[in-house]
Design goal:
With 255 residues, the chain is an alpha+beta fold. It is built from 4 helices and 9 strands. It is elongated, with a radius of gyration of 29 Å.
Length: 255
Amino acid sequence: MNAVDESGRQPRGPVALGLLTLLGVVLFAGFVSLGTWQVYRLAWKRDLIARVDARVHAAPVDAPGRAQWRDVNAASSEYRHVQLRGTFLYDRQTLVWTATDLGSGYWVMTPLQQADGSVVLVNRGFAPADWCGAKDQCAPGPSGETTLTGLLRMSEPSGLIRHNDPARNSWYTRDVPAIANARGLKDAAPYFVDEDAAPGTLDAGKPAWPQGGLTVIAFPNNHLSYLITWYALALMVLGAGFYVARDEYRQRRKP
């Protein structure tokens, strides 16, 4: 006859104990695996941040040319400090809606035609919404051949909520292929460049638009808290298993 405790509960049978054991093993192994994965993710994220920081603060190098475009990707190229030389095509400029610490306005995307005929979209910086009446041809920058430096950025696809509408000249992301197609830009690079801040940022005491050097570089790094959470859950499962085992042992020891 099975022992019965004061509450009337009998010790669990073999099937129930087997299922509880299996569930505990699966949960424990799963939580440990997730925690270990976060350990690797933490190391990867820290390495990524270090590599990007090194790229941003390195001396500028020549931007990838046409022969190198196929090798340009986010992992190896984004945020690289580059330099360009060419002539701005202001008549094919595009304004992309954005919000920054300076308020709401536009990224001023101007094509730069290089000596070999290739074109690179340059984000000359931020301009407020009322900048020159929000017209594409206002306030041109340097004329003739110019040299600039900036950070290489990858093309941004159209957003899920606010879609680019080339037909209405309404842009919310810096989608390089779409902008190049809408502006009739041939031989355009698959990336764009965030231009560095100009040495002089004031014009007659007022901000000189567009304002460059506003690239936000932020990589969320919550992997440490995640791994602590997963390992803590694994310990909780282990503790629950110990409690069940001790309870069953006491039930079977009772007369």
